[in-house]
TrEMBL record:
It is an enzyme of class 1 (oxidoreductase). Its EC number is 1.7.7.1. It catalyses: 6 oxidized [2Fe-2S]-[ferredoxin] + NH4(+) + 2 H2O = nitrite + 6 reduced [2Fe-2S]-[ferredoxin] + 8 H(+). InterPro entries: NIR_SIR_4Fe-4S, NiRdtase/SiRdtase_haem-b_fer, Nit/Sulf_reduc_fer-like_dom_sf, NO2/SO3_Rdtase_4Fe4S_dom, NO2/SO3_Rdtase_4Fe4S_sf, NO2/SO3_Rdtase_FeS/sirohaem_BS. Pathway: Nitrogen metabolism; nitrate reduction (assimilation). The lineage of its organism: Eukaryota, Viridiplantae, Streptophyta, Embryophyta, Tracheophyta. Its cofactor is [4Fe-4S] cluster; siroheme. Residues 200-356, 463-572 form the Nitrite/sulphite reductase 4Fe-4S domain. It comes from Salix suchowensis. PANTHER family: FERREDOXIN--NITRITE REDUCTASE, CHLOROPLASTIC. This is Ferredoxin--nitrite reductase, chloroplastic. Belongs to the nitrite and sulfite reductase 4Fe-4S domain family. Coiled coil: none annotated. Residues 13-23 have a biased composition (Polar residues). Residues 123-191, 382-443 form the Nitrite/Sulfite reductase ferredoxin-like domain.
Length: 589
């Protein structure tokens, strides 16, 4: 367990935490642990046999568990995906033409499936021969140097090259061609970035508080935890086969704010800050996820870990999921399905078996998150906890940027800040560490006036959109441009007094997280008034984030996209207090 023994100093807790929590560091790890006792789960002992085994340094599915597995599992069995990186298979693959690749099933599976372990997604349907590359950017923190490098990559691809801020505080760059991949991977490493293990059955980008370390009201700085998790999961970007053969993707976040910017209730594992007997640590939530067939909020594991227990707990939970998760129907392989099957105590028992000394303390009642907290947005100018410094939140319309935009953001970060940028799960950008004396000059920059406003219209503030069918082969409808157009038109008809979060997703995979939005749009095919098939959306209403989180419910099915504006206007007036523009003008007179 030496690799998991990283120690944390006592975090700087906000003034909202009782002063009794400010104890000397020697008390942080004090106190006897509460040992979780074995429980009767009612699950057959044979069901608890690990389904994977280690062979030649990689974890593979045992022969006797290969009946009824899904096609993706078969691809993993036929050839270990991580060999493309760890044994440099990408170098040879990149030398082949697309015609040569498509002649053989093995190489075709390489570019369509296995390269996702390297963060590369072939856009076979919409951009044949081009790839989207997803990075790992723990806590959404990046540098001007990194941003310039990514800009240099996409610039060479002309109109095909662009980048998106994702709903996991991450960059995705587009237009990449296979022959360039080895050089791009080397360039990423030189600036301290990686795309490794960011797709398919891997742990996705660890999310944290976008204001970590700078927010006067933060509970704890999440950056050390998210960085450590990312380093552990990828073995410092060298590749970690212990966690690259999960049954399905797996999301993790560390909460550091009362605002719950991190969206813990939709993560497979969420660390929720809590004190216990004078020690700082985290209660654990598990199992949150979205899928086409089911969406579920994370549930308490009834477990608390100290700061030093963050990695061992992550490791134990991942191992339990890797070992015991089913690998049949892909719609039923996320971790919550395993939790349902074993029961929460049964799943907890399997986690305990994989903890150091088989010990895991029960949940603490000293939750540090204030339940009655009005969630703040990050737009505009805000003072940091560091005297004389502020951060500025910028609106990136539906998260889409071009190379010149990225270069400009990097320039502004260098001139006005500390060369750092922060990405948010709402697809926006924060420039931190700006001297107050430079704020006025920054606000006068053309990029902020023409493109990325620090004070966007209220309905634009919470607008989120997935990639859509412009690039994604799974998307049923176009999302980004449509989200902007519909919102602009709605703004002409109604005025709102506070932001209304509207999310768009192109298909039921719900990458745009429509279920957590005030109003969500899920792409589908619909029929217009003449019975003609057209692009449409299932409309969801009532999602909430924060301490009172709640998944939205289906409001109207299969609405033709051309009919969305009047429907949204009606929803905003009836449920969100919007005022029709003509009435607003009369009242002003």
């Amino acid at each position: 367990m030496s690799s998991l023994s990283g120690r944390f100093l006592m975090p700087q807790l906000s003034h909202t935490v009782p002063s009794s929590s400010a104890r000397p560091r020697t008390r942080l790890f004090a106190g006897p642990p509460t040992v979780a006792q074995p429980v009767e789960t009612g699950v057959d002992a044979g069901r608890l046999e690990p389904r994977v085994e280690e062979k030649d340094g990689y974890y593979v599915l045992k022969e006797r568990f290969r009946q009824g597995i899904n096609p993706q599992e078969k691809v993993k069995i036929e050839k270990e995906p991580m060999k493309l990186f760890m044994e440099n298979g990408i170098e040879e693959l990149a030398k082949l033409s697309m015609e040569e690749i498509d002649k053989e099933k093995s190489t075709k599976d390489d570019i369509d499936v296995r390269l996702k372990w390297l963060g590369l997604f072939h856009r076979r349907k919409n951009q044949y021969g081009r790839f989207m590359m997803r990075l790992k950017l723990p806590n959404g923190v990046t540098t001007s140097e990194q941003t310039r490098y990514l800009a240099s990559v996409i610039r060479k691809y002309g109109k095909d090259g662009c980048a998106d801020v994702t709903t996991r505080q991450n960059w995705q760059i587009r237009g990449v061609v296979l022959p360039d991949v080895p050089e791009i991977l080397r360039g990423l490493a030189e600036v301290g970035l990686t795309s490794l293990q960011s797709g398919m059955d891997n742990v996705r980008n660890p999310v944290g508080n976008p204001l970590a370390g700078i927010d006067p009201d933060e509970i704890v700085d999440t950056r050390p935890y998210t960085n450590l998790l990312s380093q552990f999961i990828t073995a410092n970007s060298r590749g970690n086969p212990a966690f690259t053969n999960l049954p399905r993707k797996w999301n993790v976040c560390v909460v550091g704010s009362h605002d719950l910017y991190e969206h813990p209730h939709i993560n497979d594992l969420a660390y929720m800050p809590a004190m216990k007997d004078g020690r700082f640590g985290f209660n654990l939530l598990v199992g949150g996820f979205f899928s086409p067939k089911r969406c579920a909020e994370a549930v308490p594991l009834d477990a608390w870990v100290s700061a030093d227990g963050v990695l061992p707990a992550c490791k134990a939970i991942l191992e339990a999921y890797r070992d015991l998760g089913t690998r049949g129907n892909r719609q039923k392989t996320r971790m919550m399905w395993l939790i349902d099957e074993l029961g929460i105590e049964g799943f907890r028992s399997e986690v305990v078996k994989r903890m150091p000394d088989q010990e895991l303390e029960r949940e603490s009642s000293e939750d540090l998150i204030q339940k009655r907290w009005e969630r703040r947005d990050c737009f505009g100018v805000h003072p940091q906890k560091q005297e004389g410094l502020s951060y500025v939140g910028l609106h990136i319309p539906v998260g889409r940027v071009r190379a010149d935009d990225m270069d400009e953001l990097a320039r502004l970060a260098d001139i006005y800040g500390s060369g750092e940028l922060r990405l948010t799960v709402e697809q926006n950008v924060i420039i931190p560490n700006i001297e107050d004396s430079k704020i006025e000059a920054l606000l006068g920059e053309r990029l902020l006036k023409d493109r990325f406003s620090p004070e966007p219209p209220l309905l634009m503030k919470g607008l989120v959109a997935c990639t859509g069918n412009e690039f994604c082969g799974q998307a049923i409808i176009e999302t980004k441009a449509r989200a902007m157009k519909v919102t602009e038109e709605v703004q002409r008809f109604v005025s709102v007094s506070k932001p209304v979060r509207m999310h768009w997703t192109g298909c039921p995979n719900t990458c745009g997280q429509v279920q957590v939005a005030d109003v969500g749009f899920m792409g589908c095919m619909a029929r217009d008034e003449n019975g003609k098939v057209c692009e449409g959306a299932d409309v969801y209403v009532g999602g909430r984030v924060g301490s009172q989180s709640h998944l939205g419910e289906l409001y109207r099915k299969s609405v033709p996209c051309k009919d969305l504006v009047p429907l949204v206007v009606d929803i905003l007036v009836k449920q969100f207090g919007a005022v029709p523009r003509e009435r607003e003008e009369v009242e002003e007179d």
